[in-house]
Amino acid sequence: MRPPRSTPRARRAATAALVALVTPSAPATAAGTPAADPGHRRPCVASRLPDGGPARDILRIAQQAKADMGLESVILRVTADGREIVTTALGESMTGVPATPAMHFRNGNIAISYMGTALLRLVDQGRVGLDDPVTRWLPGLQDGDRITLRMLAASTTGLVDYVRLPEFQQAVSADPFRQWTAEELVRLSTSKERWYEPGTNWSYSHANFVLLGAALEKITGTRLDVLLQREVLGPLRLRETRNGFTPDIPEPVLHAFTSDRGTYEESSFWNPSWTTAPGAVETTDICDLASSAAGIGSGRLLSPAAYRELLNPGTVGLGHATARCPATVCIAQTEATHYGMGLLVLGDWVSQHPLFFGYSASQAYLPSERLSIAVSTTNGPDAADGHTAHVITQRIAAALAPGHPIPDFG
């Protein structure tokens, strides 16, 4: 029997009970000191200008895309079986400041793939099961007894995506420097009627990953940034990838610009606190992004069973329009293109591609060829709309692996 519809009062009460559970811990360890710096490696540098071969083809693709799309910068790295094919940076970070491969940029939802892998590592360790109800760790979440860890990581809870709400969009546009709390973000989603019953459909919702971050902290008793460093970033040697509890970006900075508010302006230090769970709001560089693509996409840190769950946690076959959820939101999940545990399976590729505040990035990995592509772009004043870094990644994939194109999602 279908459960009765919740009332706005009940949703507000349930959300209030989450305050203590999803509010981030203070950015300090139990001893009151900042989390340890993972250390620095040799800076990420450009490879020598290629005379020909695949490296030259990649460079031509990037140069043409930068011109065609009106981009301020394009930074990329391509590797095969861990060996560099090409690393380069085109354009400028700011007027008169050339972009370089060592520059740091925001990686957005790529950090969600780290949360998915961290969850599966906990499953491998026997600490949790994917089908455990989250009420055990988030007792204030409405319907938490029917929402599982799998549903959070695979984005099948039915929670409305707060990023799509007009009131949220207006608030971000009015004050892009605002610091959002996890409780505020969850309240925006849980105060709305669900798109569908948990586990019966698919739709992307940022709220799922804010809640997943809170659950991971509760499961392990460890702050999320420390947990991700221990379970993912450290083992993959991503030494230039780190969380930020403020809008700061470590030097050297790849500056970003956007016309989202009607005028072309710098957006580098607009506050990204709304983008995902506190502790997973990260910056990276292009060398780490290429290593990340290979490390996550190959399932290097997971058992074979966990890797299969990473690539398909039961999403294939879900995704259909309903009276409340249009097809542009409840996107069809097929064998060819579907959502995994915090990442996308696009044809033969494992991918993720964030887009926000003038930044676009893409990581993609082809397991059969051990081919890794990482691209970061920033916008010029007349930049094309959309995931420009991902489009460049698709073009590079078509040149290097023509038998394995990267399809669009949805």
Radius of gyration: 20 Å
Q: How large is the share of residues in beta strands?
A: 15-25%
Categorize the overall geometry: globular
Which runs of at least 5 residues are low in confidence (pLDDT < 50)? 1-40
- Can you write the helix and strand succession as a string? HHHEEEEHHHHHHEEEEHHEEEEEEH
What is the typical, i.e. mean, pLDDT?
91
- Indicate the structural class: alpha+beta
Q: Number of helical runs?
A: 12
Give me the oligomer status.
Answer: single chain
Task: Count the beta strands.
Answer: 14
Distance between the termini: 32 Å
How helix-rich are the residues, as a percent range? 25-40%
* Biggest sheet descriptor: 9 strands, antiparallel
Could you explain the architecture of this structure?
- With 410 residues, the protein is of the alpha+beta class.
- It is built from 12 helices and 14 strands.
- The chain has helices spanning 8-16, 19-22, 53-69, 110-124, 149-154, 166-174, 182-190, 206-220, 224-233, 286-297, 304-311, 388-400; strands spanning 71-80, 83-94, 97-98, 105-106, 242-243, 257-258, 265-266, 282-284, 337-339, 344-346, 349-352, 355-356, 359-366, 371-379.
- The strands form 3 sheets. Strands 1, 2, 3, 9, 10, 11, 12, 13 and 14 form a 9-stranded antiparallel sheet that branches. A 3-stranded antiparallel sheet has the order 4-8-5.
- Helix 4 (110-124) packs parallel to helix 8, helix 4 (110-124) packs across helix 9 and helix 4 packs antiparallel against helix 11 (304-311).
